[in-house]
Backbone:
């Protein structure tokens, strides 16, 4: 006992083991050998001896508490919990037992349960620094930083040299943005214990957050030297290389951390984020799920899985995960970034903007936030504001591959080609293998119609440098376009096919024809002649205070962008691009306005929430007010075009809400439409382009829906892309007559417009009308043979042939 009390564990253990030979049922000796084994790291022996002692002293609360602690250390939490409960039943005033139970709850991520048990321990003994730090840690995880700080300070008042309290206090001050105090606290902790690996790692992470890369690396290296078995240091070094876009080194350190701790949720989560950025969608989801299995309350993991679900168009699951992340860690930047993406997806633009700005305020060194806010502005045509965000990020010291890549893409989109090239070259400084400049130069050569030069640039790109599936898809789509222009159609189709495989991998979910078939069938059944008669019996009065919408609809890549560019050149017609507001109504706004629990379109005839003129006016005004906020119209504007192609499947709703508005359906040869859509780098909302066959299947259902609307008496103008290209003036005059607008010669000068087109056709519609793609399918006869049977009826319906 004297040796044990003096810290001579080896001597104490040896003597106790000798005495146990003679007295194997001596409870005191069992307790000493168990305690020595526990402190020496021999947890299994400690459990064995505590079990023997418990059999001899079944009513000894302290024995059950000690056994609870040892079993928990061994990971046998079910038995540990049973012994912890037994301990508090025997002695409700035993603070250590409540603390041990709190540790079990905390390890199982039952944080409220942990907080409750630590509170009971503190109510019994408020002067135990260890319990105070445990209570502080769980309050910190729950977001109650003020209470956590107070617990740590109370622990330090009792034991000024208690390193865990100093370490945790520094991390709380860091989260509270009290950076100077945090740094002083970290340094004080290191002054007390210079080789503490956890403090070294946490201080390094603090420096990493402030972009002091070299200093951060130095502290991580010291932590690894102090304890090579400490996984946290290896994880943090991986994070540093992640920030530097050095994925090879990042993976090396993550792999080492996983060797030390194969199911470490932090490592799995970090790898999942990297896989997500690389476009390895399914692998990313699998890693997020593994991470959350081990730590269900990881805000970063929940936020990442939420973003992955958004990429798969599963807004319901995305909302569930992201809202939980925000609830668990309202200070976490990753949770707010995921929420910004969710709000963008919901079209809640003001709230999304506020989220991006919040993240920038809290984390001014986080490139992703600046890129997100810049993309937010760019998507709304606010290009100067987008550029300002990139410039502000650069001022704040942000400079890496992803940042300059995003900025370069934005400048190229608005035709600032020299600046786009400069920024792409900046990205090369961070990764010499980065293919962006060559892909960009190929784009520019294509615009000059120098396709041989474009091909040379693309052939300089090493396939092994295309590890990001999104970049890989973009490269292959570009390569396909160049081969197409050069007349090598076999190579072009092969490139496009491979591009779509990369895209499918990035999205993580392919088109399901059965789901599409069910959806269109449900809509056709709802818009029956009788239902349409009931819905349209009392047309809504026109809103004469706003410019009238002109809806340009059609299958994507059928000429909607060209038609809008032509009409948008008219001084009385403002082009608004592809507006999402009809989609908003069909996905959630209509239900809210009507007060129905039924999905669209069933909510339009919900007996429990009848549709009336006021509700229809509210839906119409939602669209008009949302359009007005875009600022595309002025005092001379009489019409605003909306060229969202897929509004075609909602022609019934368009006619219901805007009975006086023109609807123009532009169609193109079905084989050309399907090829052009398949050859376009569409993302998740165009999942039907996952194969040429699925594109044709969706096209057929799309056109059958339009035929259905026509058959129940809904009228709209129908034009052929081929006719528009062959005789632009005559067809444009017919369209203007249909709209009710006078002729204007500006409609023949659409290619001179300075307007930025934000769709896949942005390059073509800034040129004069061209006829080179009218019979494109003839170049791909072998490829289209498989879809002709799917489209045969539709081809004949529109008067086309397969010659």
Residues:
């Amino acid at each position: 006992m004297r040796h044990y009390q003096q810290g001579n564990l080896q001597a104490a253990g040896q003597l106790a083991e000798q005495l146990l030979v003679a007295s194997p049922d001596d409870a005191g000796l069992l307790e000493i050998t168990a305690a020595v084994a526990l402190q020496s790291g021999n947890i299994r022996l400690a459990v064995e001896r505590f079990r023997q002692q418990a059999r001899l002293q079944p009513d000894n609360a302290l024995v059950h508490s000690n056994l609870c602690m040892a079993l928990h250390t061994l990971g046998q939490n079910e038995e540990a919990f049973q012994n912890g409960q037994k301990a508090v039943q025997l002695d409700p005033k035993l603070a250590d037992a409540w603390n041990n139970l709190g540790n079990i709850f905390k390890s199982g991520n039952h944080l409220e349960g942990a907080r409750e048990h630590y509170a009971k321990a503190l109510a019994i003994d408020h002067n135990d620094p260890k319990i105070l730090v445990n209570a502080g840690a769980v309050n910190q995880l729950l977001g109650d930083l003020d209470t956590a700080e107070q617990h740590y300070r109370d622990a330090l008042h009792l034991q000024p040299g208690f390193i865990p309290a100093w370490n945790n206090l520094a991390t709380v001050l860091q989260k509270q943005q009290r950076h100077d105090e945090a740094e002083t606290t970290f340094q004080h902790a290191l002054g007390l214990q210079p080789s503490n690996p956890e403090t070294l790692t946490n201080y390094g992470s603090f420096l990493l957050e402030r972009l002091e890369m070299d200093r951060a690396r130095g502290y991580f290296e010291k932590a690894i030297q102090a304890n090579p078995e400490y996984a946290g240091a290896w994880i943090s070094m991986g994070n540093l290389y992640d920030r530097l876009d050095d994925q090879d080194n990042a993976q090396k350190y993550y792999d080492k951390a996983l060797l030390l701790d194969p199911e470490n949720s932090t490592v799995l989560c970090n790898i999942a984020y990297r896989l997500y950025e690389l476009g390895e969608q399914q692998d990313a989801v699998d890693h997020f799920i593994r991470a959350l299995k081990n730590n269900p309350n990881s805000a970063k993991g929940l936020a990442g899985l939420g973003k992955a679900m958004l990429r798969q168009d599963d807004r319901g699951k995305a909302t569930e995960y992201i809202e939980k992340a925000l609830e668990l860690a309202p200070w976490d930047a990753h949770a707010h970034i995921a929420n910004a993406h969710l709000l963008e997806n919901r079209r809640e633009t003001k709230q999304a903007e506020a989220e991006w700005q919040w993240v920038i305020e809290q984390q001014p060194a986080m490139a992703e936030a600046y890129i997100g806010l810049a993309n937010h502005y760019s998507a709304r045509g606010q290009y100067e504001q987008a550029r300002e965000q990139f410039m502000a990020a650069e001022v704040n010291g942000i400079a890496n591959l992803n940042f300059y890549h995003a900025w370069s893409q934005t400048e190229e989109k608005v035709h600032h080609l020299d600046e786009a090239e400069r920024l792409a070259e900046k990205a090369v400084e961070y990764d010499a293998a980065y293919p962006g400049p060559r892909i960009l130069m190929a784009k520019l050569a294509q615009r000059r119609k120098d396709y041989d030069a474009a091909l040379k640039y693309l052939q300089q790109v090493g396939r092994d440098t295309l590890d990001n599936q999104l970049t890989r898809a973009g490269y292959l789509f570009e390569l396909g376009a160049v081969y197409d222009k050069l007349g090598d159609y076999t190579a072009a189709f092969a490139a496009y096919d491979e591009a779509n495989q990369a895209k499918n991998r990035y999205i993580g979910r392919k088109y399901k024809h059965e789901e599409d078939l069910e959806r269109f069938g449900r809509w056709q059944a709802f818009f029956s002649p009788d239902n349409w008669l009931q819905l349209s019996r009392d047309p809504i009065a026109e809103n004469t205070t706003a410019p009238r919408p002109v809806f340009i609809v059609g299958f994507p890549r059928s000429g909607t962008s060209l038609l809008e560019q032509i009409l948008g050149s008219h001084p009385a017609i403002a082009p608004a691009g592809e507006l999402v507001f009809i989609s908003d109504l069909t996905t959630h706004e209509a239900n809210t306005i009507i007060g129905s629990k039924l999905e669209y379109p069933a909510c339009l005839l919900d007996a429990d929430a009848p549709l009336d003129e006021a509700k229809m006016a509210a839906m119409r005004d939602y669209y008009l007010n949302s359009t007005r906020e875009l600022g595309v119209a002025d005092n001379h504007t009489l019409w605003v075009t909306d060229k969202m192609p897929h509004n075609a499947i909602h022609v019934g709703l368009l006619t219901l809400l805007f009975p006086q508005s023109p609807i123009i359906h532009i169609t193109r040869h079905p084989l050309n439409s399907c090829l052009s859509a398949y050859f376009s780098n569409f993302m998740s909302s165009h999942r039907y382009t996952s194969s040429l066959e699925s594109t044709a299947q969706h096209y057929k259902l799309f056109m059958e829906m339009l035929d259905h609307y026509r058959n129940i008496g809904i009228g709209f103008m129908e034009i052929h892309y081929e006719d528009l290209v062959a005789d632009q003036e005559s067809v444009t005059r017919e369209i203007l007559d249909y709209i009710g607008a006078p002729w204007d010669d500006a409609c023949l000068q659409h290619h001179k417009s300075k307007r930025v087109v934000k769709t896949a056709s942005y390059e073509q519609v800034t040129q004069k009308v061209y006829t080179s793609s009218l019979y494109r399918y003839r170049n791909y006869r072998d490829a289209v043979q498989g879809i002709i049977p799917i489209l045969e009826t539709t081809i004949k319906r529109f008067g086309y042939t397969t010659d």
